[in-house]
């Protein structure tokens, strides 16, 4: 038998009881949100119309290093956590690499991904504030499923705006979300002003994540007792997702390991930000210096080809503006792009860290991603979500580099979830009908030209 | 925090290293297989044209109590096992029962069920015998997926005959199976004599499990270097699945528990037979006396309404005859019946134990099953396969009985897998288009009248 077990689980009583707030250790903080009406930094109170109070507070809290996880949330976590840290023995063997590859697998719950970690927290705080319900958007459907599960558990009504093309292409995602009693509306819809405007301008549109965000926010602020919740990008989401990294760190300590390289997929940053949190803490405090790599789709390359600038978080321009790596809030990846990771921007925290040189980023074309996904499934018997396969791709590149150099580095990557609801995309890869569309420089320049002008700032 | 953790995992070095052969402890053995050509008991050698040698040996081995699990199979098991034993705290709370409910969850692997436990073993032995490939059938698709994963890992070609209605209704199952490189053929097909005959007699047929078995067996015995493998019913399958029960027993010992009641769903018996194995050992040897309950669909009620008689294992009557509880090998459950558990017969081992009074059986209508499934998903955050929901239903009935009597019994049930590929059925339940068809006595009598006549036996 191998010395290190294949799957490393923390005991329930070893699970983290507090989230880690990365901002408390950053040398320089992300730039503040800007209220588009005033051109001034938004305050916590400015966020109250959109977010419930505790979440608005977490969003703006740049100083509290550790935030206790309420017992009710811990109790929910214990239903599906700790998630396993897995040693990828078979993948290592297949790659013939001296590297040791570990992955933190977040797919063993019905939502199929790490999204549940923040969904539970956001549903809990909303319920605690006696809200009548919440709204959100979902693209690929993982966040919508996770939030539906969490809201059902806390008996909190939920309305999900699902990007229309996903709604139509993924009827089973819709069914799962309905199983947990959520209302689900294809976006753009006639239930909001912004939706009606977009439909009038472009009747045939199949929707976008930015547009669904606009609708969900409008619905929340115009419905008595409702607030809006979001599954990525936000500081609060990275806070909740820090449990992924904290568990990973503890599990690695149990086997006397520490990663030299950490790889995560990057769309809005929810998994990557959570996975790297405690390792970035070590890096920021000078304790260790792991190499941290974000992997994004070549069709939606916000870190590798975007601008670090203030932009709206949604297409309808109803949200505050955040300084982040962005492709422009009107940017929509090619319809051929499969799966998630299709957001135009990137978590302001991760954007700042990337801008300041604390992490690297690469991009990959999707046919390469699916090739990697299928190889991984055959070696490790887990069929990954397309999003997760970006992280696998990055880890494989690093492991192959180790094969060349002969270095036995320790690689940790985040396997965010499973691909059971992504079989249309897998089939199109196997049928060779999938292609790789990459935006041209000209397209991106046109999008950057529309970035908001803010007097005195940009 | 609760004293007993929510999820109990064995350490990797605590995992069972041998399978348990229930037959070695049975007071009376199941009746032998009968060769339809001679009317005499089949020998191990008689099975060689169909099964590879080691599996034929395991099929006929009534005496070896423990069979070591080959290291290569253990190594594969370590990729996805041990599976968790989970305390259903939230379900208990919802039911307001003094009972303690545990379930052994086998769905945390890409095949989505316990089927992988036997698939790995069968693929391994086939590869070890240098076979060129294997054939099998699949109904709901879980077995086909599991075997495709296992065969891909051992580089063994696989042809799957998939019941035509499933093939058409579950395109995503097909895609997953193809991801692992298996050939997949809708059954009945023109690739076999028996398939052509069935198609000629009934051109519009959507197929049945019994018919797909006939095709897979014919294909195996007529293709050089090929053998046939099966995911349920057989003694060898129950042997491999004993790992479920052995792990459950060890996990319960870790928390000083032992089940008063054990509940499993029953189609061909693969999960139930594996789950109960060590507890039945205790019962057969007089050590303990747990109550053991099989739960089957009212639309395919082999234990509760079938005959204990010799019957063919397939529709085409190409297999040996087994004495088992059967609805007749031509019986096909209503097309409205969702999910698996649609086999006309039942494992000969379980049939004998049931016949001799060692276990009970109940049946349930499918709308009740889906009602239970959705309640469970909301409480425990796992969306169960329809098959698994039968076991939940049985456990809930027992827990409710405890509420009435005030007894704090310990209930263990088998949660065989997840329902991610069963959303069409979930949707039809939510849309109220699902109904409960139960075969009439007259229909069953007509089916029993066609049971084979064997001179001197029946």
What does this structure look like?
Two copies of one chain form a homodimer. Chain A is of the alpha/beta class and 458 residues long. Chain A folds into two domains: 246 residues, Rossmann fold (3-Layer(aba) Sandwich), CATH 3.40.50; 167 residues, Rossmann fold. Chain A is built from 17 helices and 17 strands. In chain A, the strands form five sheets. The first copy, chain A, has a seven-stranded mixed sheet with strand order 1-6-7-17-12-13-16, with helices on both faces. In chain A, strands 10-9-8-11 form a four-stranded parallel sheet, sandwiched between helices. In chain A, α5 links the parallel β8 and β9. The longest helix of chain A is centred in the middle third of the chain and has 20 residues. Chain A starts with 6 loop residues before the first strand and ends in a 10-residue tail after the last helix. The relative contact order of chain A is 0.15. The mean pLDDT of chain A is 95. Chains A and B meet through α2, α5, α7, α14 and α16 of A and α2, α5, α7, α14 and α16 of B.
């Amino acid at each position: 038998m191998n010395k290190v077990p294949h799957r490393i689980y923390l005991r329930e009583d070893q699970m983290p009881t507090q989230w880690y707030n990365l901002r408390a250790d950053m040398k320089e903080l992300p730039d503040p949100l800007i209220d588009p009406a005033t051109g001034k930094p938004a305050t916590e109170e400015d966020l109250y119309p959109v977010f419930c109070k505790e979440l608005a507070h977490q969003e703006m809290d740049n100083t509290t290093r550790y935030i206790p996880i309420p017992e009710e949330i811990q109790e929910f976590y214990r239903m599906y956590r700790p998630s396993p840290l897995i040693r990828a023995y078979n993948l290592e063997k297949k790659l013939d690499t001296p590297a040791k590859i570990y992955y933190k697998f977040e797919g063993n719950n019905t939502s199929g991904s790490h999204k549940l970690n923040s969904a539970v927290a956001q549903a809990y705080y909303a319920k605690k504030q006696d809200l009548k319900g919440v709204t959100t958007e979902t693209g690929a459907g993982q966040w919508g499923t996770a939030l539906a599960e969490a809201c059902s558990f806390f008996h909190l009504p939920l309305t999900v705006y699902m990007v229309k093309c996903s709604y139509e292409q993924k009827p089973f995602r819709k069914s799962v979300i309905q199983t947990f009693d959520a209302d689900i509306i294809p976006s753009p819809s006639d239930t909001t002003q912004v939706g009606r405007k977009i439909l009038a301008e472009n009747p045939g549109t199949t929707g976008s994540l930015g547009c669904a965000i606009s609708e969900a926010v409008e619905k929340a602020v115009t419905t008595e007792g409702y607030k809006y919740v979001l599954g990525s990008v936000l500081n609060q989401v990275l806070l909740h997702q820090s449990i992924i990294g904290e568990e990973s760190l503890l599990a690695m300590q149990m086997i006397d390991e520490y990663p030299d390289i950490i790889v995560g997929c990057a769309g809005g940053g929810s998994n990557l930000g959570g996975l790297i949190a405690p390792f970035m803490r070590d890096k920021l405090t000078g304790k260790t210096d792991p190499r941290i790599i974000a992997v994004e789709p070549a069709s939606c390359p916000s870190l590798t080809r975007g601008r670090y600038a203030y932009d709206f978080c949604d297409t309808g321009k109803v949200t505050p503006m955040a300084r982040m790596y962005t492709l422009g809030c009107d940017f929509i990846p090619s319809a051929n792009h499969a799966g998630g990771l299709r957001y135009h921007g990137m978590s302001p925290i991760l954007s700042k860290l990337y801008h300041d040189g604390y992490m690297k980023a690469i991009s990959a074309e999707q046919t390469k991603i699916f090739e990697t996904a299928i190889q991984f499934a055959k070696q490790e018997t887990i069929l990954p979500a397309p999003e997760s396969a970006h992280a696998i791709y990055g880890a494989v590149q690093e492991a192959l580099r180790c094969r060349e150099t002969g270095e036995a580095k320790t690689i940790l990557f985040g396997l965010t979830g499973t691909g059971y609801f992504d079989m249309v995309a897998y089939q199109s890869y196997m049928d060779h009908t999938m292609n790789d569309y990459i935006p041209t420089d000209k397209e991106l320049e046109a999008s950057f030209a529309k970035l908001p002008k803010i007097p005195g700032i940009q």
